[in-house]
Amino acid sequence: MGTSRLAGFYNLSLEERLARAALAAGLTPEELSVWTTGGISLESADHMIENAIGLHALPLGLGLNFQINGRDVLVPMAIEEPSVVAGASFMAKLARAGGGFQTTSSAPLMIGQMQVLNVVNLAEASFKLYEHKAELLAAADEIDPILKKFGGGARDLEVRTFPDSPVGGFLVLHLIYDVRDAMGANAVNTACERLAPQVEAITGGKVHLRILSNLADRRITRARCQIPVKELTFEGFSGETVRDGIIAAYAFAAVDPYRAATHNKGIMNGVDAVVIATGNDWRAIEAGAHAYAARGGRYTSLSTWGVNAEGDLVGTLEMPMAVGVIGGATKVHPAARAALKLMNVKTASDLAEIIVAVGLAQNMAALRALATEGIQRGHMSLHARQVAIAAGASGDMIEKIAARMVAEKIVRIDRAEELLESLA
Ligand code: MEV
After folding, report:
1. In total, how many domains does the chain have?
2. Label partner for 128 (CA 20 to 30 A): which of 19, 52, 107, 121?
3. pTM reported for the whole predicted model
């Protein structure tokens, strides 16, 4: 992979951009051409879900300037919202001046849950499960020989008891499973279903639900960046003002769940775009992220922003990241495969770390805008283009109408329609 700094990329035509991206990643334009068709055929859609009647496309943009653990990476982002790709790319450029993003991941451990009802003595049943831990883990380990071959498998058991619930007391057995480069839902769900008879025999209870937990708090990815304060200088704002503005904005999200929800939504703008581009399950990622944000009993920010000894801005983001690079749509969707190829991603943790770095960059883009000129200015010109298209504009007319609406500060469909009529 060459550099992820592709100067002037924005001004190229769509075809030129694809050729440039392919060149930078050492691929042929043909290898990436699935993106110009949407990637899957109607026939494969028909095999993927029930009652298929068509395809649903999203724009795919390229996040530029990302450097992650010293490696340059071009990041495919599937998203309908304007400003996200530009914001992440610009912040990645600023982060690059401070050494890019440093990332780490825990082992890829997922949690499977078994709810055990009708247990006479919760403490006794819990202890018995621990006494049978070795045989339960050995049985769970046999279930997925492929994962086992690649070094995955059952790792641990944990028992939790809930003495008071609307249906009385019950016990929950957690199976901790190393899923290597898979997202892991299938392996974990299968393991939980297969272990159920043994668990019933040991506890004397009735196994009810057997399902993976999306609060994947054993599968955590962390990203950190530092931005030299001088890089933050922006129009009339000094670097220090922008830095302190970002930190004060973070403080708001740290203490107030109403703000934290929006702050984390900004993070997910970046995260989901890459999760979707790689064919992963973004609902699982969303569920895990927000549950993790509330793990302390109060919903809060997933990221932190502060200052280091040199006076530079330091950002961190820590969140569950249950993504895979084998199995599911990641394997069968040609556009997802092209995305992994473009990023030269080989393992699930490589992918997870790119995703979390993009989330952190995206968070900073939003906070920087909010702490300075406000979010609307940057949003407006792209939003105006969408409004112009919605009003029926095409070709050059889109830009003309959008520019007029931005200049007038009236970005509305009725105004776009009027302009379309008068300029046509
Ligand atoms: C909009 O999609 C995301 C933001 O609201 C995030 C934030 O407020 O931090 C701009």
Report:
1. 3
2. 107
3. 0.92
